[in-house]
Known about the structure:
Order of helices and strands: EEHHHEHEHEHHEHHEHEHEHEEEH
Number of helices: 13
Shape: globular
Largest sheet: 8 strands, parallel, barrel
CATH superfamily: Glycosidases
Strand order of the largest sheet: 3-4-5-6-7-8-9-10
CATH topology: TIM Barrel
Distance between the termini: 54 Å
Mean pLDDT: 95
Radius of gyration: 19 Å
Structural class: alpha/beta
CATH architecture: Alpha-Beta Barrel
Amino acid sequence: MARPWFSAPWDSHSDQPYRICDPKLRRRLRAACLGPHLYTAALTAATAPLVALRYASLHQVRFAGPQAASFHGLGCSPLPGLDQAQSELLDELDIDRVLVRQGAWQLKAWPRTRQFIAALAPRQVLLVLAQDRRSICQPGYWQQFCRQVIDELPDNVEAVQIGQAVNRLKWGCTHVGEALALDAVIPAIRQQRPALRILGSSIIDFEPLASLRSLLAWNQPRLDGVAALLYVDRRGDPANTQAGCFDLTRKIRAIAALTAISPRSAKRLWLTEFNWPLTGHGPWAPTSARECVSEDQAAAWLQRYSAMAQASGLVERIYWWQLLAQGYGLVDPRDLRRRPAFHALAARQREMRDSGPAES
């Protein structure tokens, strides 16, 4: 059966697709998703006791040495005239792990992105392979995109993330079941690059039912770990709760529990995006004005997010999105002013690097 078509134009201000606002289209797409949503509900009911048991029995892991030093990563994008500046800023922060996105619809820009990634060496890069609606409706298009990128992958790419925010309509998927089709490229990637880590799930925000659907899919290719785009900006403080009880620590624990019982994933959890949008930047902020905060508040919450994620003992790495961005970056790209969050991350990075060996 043909999948319904829609398009979401790209918003270059906030580096994401525009939200689909057509109410008739949204109603039609929701109606088409009734069956998949009922399947997710049934799967949730059947597995809830196992998830709860695993949630209660998780053991922490203490990352030390090189793992602790690489706990923080940063999203970066190639920007005209600013590549060298970004490299110098990464040196200043002492960050050696970088996340770079490559959209399927932006394949003509891949040579430029590839050059940018290679110039980041010896820093290690997590490359996000982001989909659009055409990637879902025309699997051959997605497969050709992934094949070309993987064929030309710079040596300093340590991992790829399959998919981007797959539980958001504007990124091209009407439901998570559709997004699972993106994983069909994984066997070919493993054959091309056996040493490459492949991460997936790629759920944005805390939506445990979507995470459960993506991770409890028995017939899907194996993942080397879970990528969770765990924003908490709509709650503000990472210590604030969602659904009455889930602060950041409990959200991490819930996703880790799903990762632990997943038949398709290694027990590795990376939080591949988080940030807070900044007040006063209009369309450059990626969310509404309600979620925007001051620069000082963003810095304080960055430190708290990092500390809570580390203390959970369940997260191997976290990535702030991103280094240079007018509405949410650590540095203002217009004048390269380091915002308070830049200094907050530098302090946390020093603290992590200076931390002692793990407790046995």
